[in-house]
Amino acid sequence: TSITSAKIHVNGVHLHYQQTGEGSHAVLLLPGMLGSGQTDFGPQLKSMNKQLFTIVAWDPRGYGKSIPPSRDFPPDFFERDAKDAVDLMQALKFKKFSLLGWSDGGITALIAAAKYPTLIHKLVVWGANASVTQEDVRIYNGIRDVSKWSEKVKKPMEEMYGHEYFAKTCEAWVDGISRFAEKSDGSICQQLLPDIKCPTFIIHGEKDPLVPQAHAEYIHKHIKGSR
Question: What would you give as a GO molecular function for this chain, any one (predicted)?
Answer without folding.
Answer: serine hydrolase activity
